[in-house]
Automatic annotation (TrEMBL):
This is Conserved hypothetical integral membrane protein. One of its GO terms (cellular component) is plasma membrane. Belongs to the UPF0324 family. The chain crosses the membrane at residues 30-52, 58-79, 124-146, 158-179, 199-224, 231-257, 263-281, 310-331, 337-357, 369-392. Residues 1-20 are annotated as: Disordered. The keyword Transmembrane applies. It is found in: Cell membrane. InterPro entries: UPF0324_pro. PANTHER family: INNER MEMBRANE PROTEIN YEIH-RELATED, UPF0324 INNER MEMBRANE PROTEIN YEIH. It is a multi-pass membrane protein. It comes from Krasilnikoviella flava. Residues 10-20 have a biased composition (Low complexity).
């Protein structure tokens, strides 16, 4: 009797695990927006290099990224009627650009800490450090007060105060992450928060460019020494590129002092953002508590019911990066690479933020923030100059 031929065993059918399906769904949801941000970042970095000789490095690639992102967002969201192919594409890229504007931005703030060394800041001496602290504290408080007087939206005033007192676009970006957790600012109206960010960054660019032209001749007319001029420019001009452009026209010594002074301002980013986050958290908790009284340990809850930390995690990461850089154990190649990566991350985040900016609304509401920016420029320049003249021989 013939025997049946042996059967070849079938390979077991592989089924996707829940983790694999979840990762695939996340990649599908975020992929288009991440790809758009990546392509835009490459193009913008190349464009900023081409524009640098013509602008003297005064135009930050971060601000350029925001402007281009706003233009792209306006085209995708408004030119094509709803239901069109481009409109559907805009809806597809939204999740990815939102993720970039939030997560990539925070990663950039953490890496920013690797550019800062506490020993370099201490080399300014107590007089130089006092100039920085006084300038930051007075500018931040004054701009917030002027914002209330001018009836500028609270989030806009906070972002402008942070950008003018600390370090321009990077500081605005860090404070944005704090406002995103505030139900009266970012958590309730994310689109409006993006408009506030765009306004603050535009003001930093406009008045920082004015400072490049105005401060060096004023320093010469006042007879400031190179050290005094460097302290003044580093303590009052917003962007690092603007500081370099302004101080570089005076002397190499002024440029060196201005750069270190600027870094000293950036060190204050962490305590300022942490303090603002703690204040906003207590206000939110007080508003959510019957009778308006909030116990000391109350913090706003996240969407899943957990309490949000009073100090954001990316701020702690920023401080940890500063400490690592201050030890001196990192080779120059690592810090140089970190600086380049930080710029890439910030450009991507600024482009993503720009795609959500409501340009027509921003144009309609820009008058009062423009006045606030002018007042902030006067305050930061005046306070820092007075501090230099009083404290630095």
């Amino acid at each position: 009797m013939p025997t049946a031929p042996p059967t070849t065993p079938r390979a077991p059918t592989r089924t996707a695990t829940p983790t694999t399906r979840s990762l695939a769904a996340t990649a599908s949801r975020l992929g288009p927006g991440l790809a758009l941000a990546a392509v835009a970042t490459v193009v913008l970095l190349g464009a900023s290099r081409l524009l640098a000789p013509a602008t003297g490095g005064a135009v930050s690639p971060l601000v350029l990224a925001l402007l281009v992102g706003a233009a792209v967002g306006s085209v995708l969201g408004r030119v094509v009627p709803r239901g069109g192919g481009v409109a559907r594409f805009a809806e597809r890229v939204g999740p990815g650009t939102d993720w970039t504007a939030r997560t990539v931005l925070r990663a950039g703030v953490v890496l920013l800490g690797l550019q800062l060394s506490v020993p370099d800041v201490l080399a300014l001496g107590w007089r130089g450090i006092a100039v920085v602290v006084v300038t930051v504290a007075c500018t931040f408080a004054a701009v917030l007060a002027l914002g209330r007087m001018l009836r500028v939206p609270r989030a806009t005033a906070l972002l402008v105060a942070t950008g003018f007192s600390i370090c321009g676009a990077a500081a605005v970006s860090a404070m944005t992450s704090v406002l995103e957790r505030d139900p009266r600012a970012g958590a309730g109206e994310p689109a409006r928060l993006r408009d506030d960010v765009a306004a603050a960054l535009a003001l930093v660019t406009v008045y920082g460019t004015v400072a490049i032209v105005a401060l060096p001749p004023i320093a010469g007319a006042l007879g400031l020494s190179d050290h005094q001029a460097g302290l003044w420019i580093g303590a009052s001009v917003q962007e690092v590129a603007q500081v370099v452009a302004a101080a570089g026209t005076i002397s190499a010594a002024a440029l060196a002092t201005a750069t270190v002074t600027k870094l000293a301002r950036v060190v204050l980013l962490a305590p300022l953002v942490a303090g603002a986050g703690a204040v906003l958290a207590r206000r939110a908790a007080r508003a959510a508590t019957p009778g308006g009284a909030a116990p000391d340990d109350v913090a706003p809850s996240t969407a899943r019911g957990r309490r949000a930390p009073l100090v954001p995690g990316f701020v702690l990461g920023f401080l940890a990066a500063v400490l690592v850089r201050s030890t001196g154990i990192l080779p120059d190649v690592v810090t140089d690479t970190a600086t380049q990566v930080t710029t890439v991350l910030f450009v991507a985040a600024m482009f993503a933020l720009g795609t959500g900016v409501d340009v027509p609304r921003l144009a309609r509401t820009a008058r009062r923030p423009l006045v606030l920016g002018a007042a902030g420029a006067v305050v930061v320049s005046g306070v820092s100059l007075a501090a230099v003249l009083l404290l630095v021989p």
